[in-house]
Design brief:
The chain has 142 residues and is an alpha+beta fold. The chain has 5 helices and 5 strands. Helix 1 packs across helix 2 (25-33), helix 1 (14-21) crosses helix 3 (53-68) and helix 3 crosses helix 4. The longest helix has 17 residues, at 122-138. The protein starts with 13 loop residues before the first helix and ends with a helix.
Length: 142
């Protein structure tokens, strides 16, 4: 799969990003105040913030991790490991929580003893996001 231009170019508003991630705008803005690592804060131009497709994928991972119960700051830093300039590999991200400790592991196959765990198919999530984001990107300015 060839990555679209919007994967690396700031193309999505705050509202569009929140919608693509599946969270409210208020939740998304709260995450932004938590100082995400790296360059996942978007690009501010003329008083508006825009995000790349990679950023949207990053926040989609944050949403999944947060829903599983991973503390938000841990989710913000863990998601940065997997939202890169390249399309993710075919690995599965396996997340297990034991009390205050959350373990993250990349696996080639779904582990037989994965429960209770969150198992995310990284490439499939990215591909699905790219399809939905392409529709938003194509209707920009309409």
């Amino acid at each position: 799969m060839t990555l679209p231009a919007f994967w690396r170019q700031p193309s999505f508003s705050v509202v569009e990003t929140a919608d693509l991630v599946g969270v409210s705008e208020a939740t998304f803005r709260a995450w932004l105040t938590r100082a995400p690592p790296g360059d996942h804060l978007g690009v501010k131009t003329h008083g508006r913030i825009h995000f790349t497709g990679r950023d949207v994928f990053y926040y989609q991972l944050v949403a999944h991790l947060s829903e599983f119960g991973v503390p938000i700051r841990t989710a913000l830093f863990a998601a940065a490991q997997h939202a890169t300039d390249e399309l993710p590999g075919e690995e599965w991200l396996v997340v297990k929580s034991a009390g205050d400790v959350t373990n993250f592991e990349l696996a080639e196959d779904i582990p037989a003893a994965a429960a209770p765990a969150l198992v995310l198919p990284l490439r499939a999530l990215a591909a699905s996001l790219i399809e939905r984001a392409a529709v938003v990107y194509a209707t920009e300015g309409v």
